[in-house]
Design brief:
Helix content: 25-40%
Number of strands: 20
Shape: globular
Largest sheet: 9 strands, antiparallel
Structural class: alpha+beta
């Protein structure tokens, strides 16, 4: 029996609360949501209270408000920031509460704006949110990220469809790749988590010293720190709350050594960053650092991202995703990193997740850096995988073992 749209939407809300955030009775929940998400957000709030939340609050966002600032605000005002938002999120993390973010934005929102202002707004936000993001990237709280259709985003993905069809098509795609259209989405996710866990357990047992990537436009070697830890699907807070940070997720990931990236890596999908699309780009690394950048579109914004600080020119995450993932097999380019990164192998410029090395969450900044961990205000994933990519693991005696062949698992 097929499910109605209303049933799927209810399932999505419950999945976000119970499996995504893993909300525990007695916690507070902050929902960060675009105004277009009001129907889903209301269902999430109700599901959270039914799960035992003490208080659920919503922080609304709006692309139109963002664009109005770029169009009309004084040019000398872009270093200002609503500090109360950052303080509220940091307090939530310190109190042991939870955060659910609904990410949906127009990929071309700021394409006609000054790249310097776009970069400035990103850097100011990253600076103010740094204490909260440090908590997030140490698994100090349970959090999750989901998405939903908005008109401008749906139109970008389905330009040949009529406007009234575009939203429906994007909903259908999201329900499918998030396993919401299955009779028991929770059971489907439990099985999926088990499969990803088996992949990361295999890689942890191998303890490779590096990964070797080969594909058109890519000849790249990425070193891995001693005692690195692969993760997949679910995470756990110090208090024992299990959560899934991204819905959907198809990746297993760890942190690379910040000083051991060598060669050229080319993007396989556009990167939507700060309301600007960066397309057909490549990065050249030496001694772990970006030394050359090319891009057919958005190069100025990419260069500003890399110049955010010392760590933004180095890598903080490496993730493996098979080309046969449901998102890749959908044949859609989502122009949204939450989805596109789960269709493709990817790496991230900037901050590393501290839990990706043994004892990392308790290390001083100096010890974390000595272990190979990268620190930065930024953390930006970009996609490099395809059905033409091979990935090999480098053993301690220098041998190459296949991990992926033609974009698929080789073990």
């Amino acid at each position: 029996m097929s499910l109605s749209f209303e049933q799927k939407l209810q399932n999505y809300a419950e999945l976000a609360v119970k499996i995504g955030v893993g909300l525990r009775a007695g916690q507070r929940l902050m929902v960060r949501a675009p105004i277009e998400s009001a129907p889903l957000t209301r269902l999430i709030v109700a599901s959270a209270y039914k799960a035992g939340a003490r208080l659920v609050d919503v922080l609304w966002t709006d692309d139109a408000v963002t664009l109005a600032r770029f169009n009309h605000a004084p040019r000398d005002s872009f270093e200002e920031y609503p500090t109360w938002q950052a303080e509220a999120l940091t307090q939530i993390a310190e109190n042991g509460d939870a955060v659910l973010s609904i990410y949906a934005t127009d990929p071309d929102l700021l394409k006609d704006q000054d790249p310097d202002l776009v970069a400035l707004v990103q850097r100011v936000a990253q600076t103010h949110l740094a204490p909260f993001r440090r908590k997030v990237m140490s698994d100090a709280l349970n959090w999750s990220l989901i998405s939903l259709p908005i008109a401008s985003w749906a139109a970008k993905i389905f330009p040949q469809s009529e406007p009234d069809e575009q939203i429906a098509q994007l909903w259908e795609a999201i329900f499918k790749v998030c396993r919401i259209d299955q009779p028991d989405p929770v059971a489907a996710w439990q099985q999926h988590v088990a499969e990803l866990s088996a992949r990361k357990d295999y890689l942890n047992a191998k303890a490779y010293t590096a990964l070797k990537y080969t594909a058109p436009g890519t000849d790249f070697t990425l070193g891995l720190p001693d005692n690195h830890i692969w993760h997949g699907a679910h995470s756990q807070t110090p208090g024992g709350i299990t959560f899934i940070a991204n819905i959907p997720t198809e990746e297993v990931f760890t942190m690379p050594h910040k000083d051991r990236a060598e060669g050229v890596v080319s993007s396989s999908k556009p990167l939507s960053y700060g309301g600007v699309l960066i397309e057909d780009f490549s990065l050249t690394f030496a001694n772990g650092r970006v030394v050359n950048v090319t891009a057919k579109k958005g190069e100025a914004v990419l260069r500003k991202l890399i110049d955010t600080d010392e760590g933004s020119a180095r890598l903080g995450e490496v993730a493996l995703v098979p080309h046969s993932s449901p998102i890749s097999q959908s044949g859609l380019l989502f122009y949204n990193t939450l989805f596109d990164e789960n269709a493709s192998n990817h790496i991230a410029l900037g901050r590393a997740y501290r839990f990706c090395v043994t004892g990392g969450a308790d290390m001083s900044d100096e010890d974390f850096a000595a272990a190979g961990g990268n620190d930065s205000l930024a953390h930006v994933d970009f996609m490099i995988g395809s059905d033409e990519m091979d990935v090999a693991g480098v053993t301690r005696d220098g041998q190459l073992e296949p991990i992926m062949r033609a974009g698929e698992w080789a073990f």
